[in-house]
Write a structure and sequence with these properties.
The protein has 244 residues and is an alpha+beta fold. The protein folds into 2 domains: 43 residues; 192 residues. 23% of the residues lie in helices and 38% in strands. Strands 1, 2, 3, 4, 7, 10 and 13 form a 7-stranded antiparallel beta sheet that branches. The chain has a 6-stranded mixed beta sheet with strand order 5-6-8-9-11-12, with no helix packed on it.
Length: 244
């Protein structure tokens, strides 16, 4: 787990600033001194940042026509905890890389469990998985302590149905047309379980071979939903890099 700046970091900044003052105007000196003072106070009085990555395998089990079908995918989430004393802000942000689970259902087609919550939010799925494993939210702990707990987690957990990701089928893989939200599931099949297990296995990619429109810029991809229309960016199927 990586943690943010400390008082030692601030002292180094102070020393560097001090060496630059000789050829600087009085007004600039005052401005620089104020900046350094602010850095010193924030650095020594509680500005904190911690970051960790959690790699996990998701395994889905689907029942269809009396058959039990399993499929899995390795994904990785980045978790950042921040405390800023001046604005009294604190919290955790997340992002995820990897690719969706592809479940081949005989006589039905392929069901994709996306890297997105049921609302289609890619950054919203990781908190749901952390919640399923009892790692978030923890009101009695600071964001830094929660990140530390996540970094130390080496177990597994079952994701409850209410925290399942968005699930879709793709009518035309070559263009991304006719994507239908199947999160409410269908009579032909039912996702019976979703299990998360921490792993050191590699993250595998390859959906771009099936979907040539992935990683290409363009308009949002329309999704037919039971109650209207939504949109995806494509990163919910596969994403190689964290957001900056």
């Amino acid at each position: 787990m990586r943690q943010g700046p400390t008082c030692g970091w601030v002292e180094l900044r102070l020393q560097l600033r001090h060496k630059q003052l000789a050829n600087t105007s009085a007004r600039a000196v005052l401005a620089m001194a104020a900046t350094v003072s602010l850095l010193a106070v924030s650095g020594c009085l509680g500005w904190e940042r911690a970051e960790t990555h959690l790699r996990y395998k998701l395994t889905a089990t689907v029942e269809s026509a009396g058959q039990s079908i399993t499929a899995s995918a390795v994904q990785e989430m980045r978790v950042i905890g921040v405390i800023t004393p001046f604005s009294n802000q604190r919290g955790i942000s997340t992002d995820v890389i990897g690719q969706a689970i592809s479940v081949e259902i005989p006589n039905v087609g392929t069901l994709y469990l996306l890297m997105a919550s049921r609302s289609g939010d890619r950054t919203g799925i990781s908190p749901q998985y952390l919640q399923a494993c009892g790692l978030y939210p923890q009101d009695a702990k600071t964001p830094i302590e929660q990140v530390s707990d996540i970094a130390a987690f080496r177990g597994s957990c079952d994701v409850p149905r209410r925290l399942f990701p968005m699930m879709v089928t793709v009518g035309d893989p070559t263009t991304g047309a006719d994507i239908v939200d199947r999160s409410d599931e269908a009579v032909q099949w039912r996702v019976t379980s979703l299990r998360l297990e921490v792993t050191d296995e590699p993250i595998l990619f390859g959906l771009e071979q099936r979907f040539p429109w992935l990683y290409k810029s363009g308009p949002p991809i329309p999704v037919t939903e039971p109650h209207g229309y939504g949109y995806l960016s494509g990163s919910e199927f596969s994403h190689r890099e964290y957001l900056q």
